[in-house]
Amino acid sequence: MYFSTWFRKKWNMDVTYSTRSLWTSEGGFWSGSFRRSYPGSACVFFTTIIVLCVEHEQFSRGQLVFLLFTMPFWMTVTEAIAPHTNDGPFLAAMGCGLLVVALALI
After folding, report:
1. Distances (CA, A) of 100 to 38, 89, 92
2. CB-based burial of residue 71 (10 Å sphere; 0-12 exposed, 13-18 middle, 19+ buried)?
3. Domain extents in the chain
């Protein structure tokens, strides 16, 4: 939460949001509430776009268009609702799932 602290100290702005967790050990599904930051979510969004653009040669034009329109959004949503300390596997599953759909069906 480096950037959220920086925004709070520098500009007196709260750039965090509260989200429900997909799963917690305390109560099961949709039971926990966690703080995430808009700069952190934007980082996921823009990093996804950058990586897709760098690796554009790996995809056909249709696959790239599909991935550019779906993957940044769904990766950001997944990061927002994944369990707080274990969002890596959820991001990997979403990213790999979208890649499988693009490569197999388009």
Report:
1. 28, 16, 12
2. buried
3. 37-105
Q: Per-residue pLDDT tens for 1-24? A: 555 565 666 666 666 777 766 666
At a CB cut-off of 8 Å and minimum separation 6, what does 14 contact?
4, 7, 8
At residue 21, the pLDDT reads: 66
- According to DSSP, the residues that pair with 14 across neighbouring strands are none
**Cβ–Cβ < 8 Å for 49, 72:** yes
Do 67 and 99 touch, CB atoms closer than 8 A? yes
Please classify residue 67 by burial: count the beta carbons closer than 10 Å to its beta carbon, then call 0-12 exposed, 13-18 middle and 19+ buried.
buried
Task: State the pTM of this model.
Answer: 0.78
